[in-house]
């Protein structure tokens, strides 16, 4: 699905600083994975499947303008993040009530 907007690259110093920010915040608040809701071992390297990665709550493919917005970031296990896919949007559109 294309919305006509280009997706900013997620790399370089800016991405590294964003990951450091989300890891520090997650460690301080003991935040679980935003996808599976299980604890994250923030001491593992980010390259470890169980390590912390930065998940965009609203996908970069659908909302490229939110790529660098810290309010759109949450900690996730690397494996969960990679499994989620590029166009998934975590928790968006899910209601708490059954109709």
Describe, in plain words, how this protein is organized in 3D.
The protein is of the alpha+beta class. The protein has one domain. It contains 2 helices and 2 strands, in the order αββα. The protein has helices at residues 12-29, 78-84, and strands at residues 52-56, 73-77. A two-stranded antiparallel ribbon has the order 1-2. The termini are far apart. Mean pLDDT is 86; it is low at 93-99.
Features:
99 residues, globular, alpha+beta, 2 strands, disordered C terminus
Task: Indicate the multimeric state.
Answer: single chain
Q: Order of SSEs, N→C?
A: HEEH
**Low-pLDDT sequence parts:** 93-99
In spatial order, strands of the major sheet run: 1-2
Counting structural domains, the number is 1
**Fraction of residues in H or I helices:** 25-40%
Topology, number of strands: 2
Shape: globular
- Indicate the proportion of strand residues: 5-15%
Gyration radius, to the nearest Å? 14 Å
How many strands, which pairing sense, and closed or not: the largest β-sheet?
2 strands, antiparallel
N- to C-terminal distance: 28 Å
**What is the tally of helical segments?**
2
Average predicted local confidence, pLDDT: 86
Structural class: alpha+beta
């Amino acid at each position: 699905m294309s919305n006509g907007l280009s997706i900013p690259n997620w790399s370089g110093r800016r991405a590294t600083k964003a990951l450091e920010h989300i890891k520090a915040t997650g460690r301080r608040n003991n935040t679980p994975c935003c996808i599976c809701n299980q604890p994250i071992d923030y001491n593992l390297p980010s390259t470890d499947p169980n390590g912390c990665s930065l998940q965009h709550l609203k996908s970069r493919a659908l909302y490229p303008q939110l790529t660098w917005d810290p309010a759109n970031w949450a900690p996730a296990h690397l494996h969960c993040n990679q499994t989620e896919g590029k166009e998934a949007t975590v928790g968006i559109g899910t209601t708490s009530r059954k109709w």
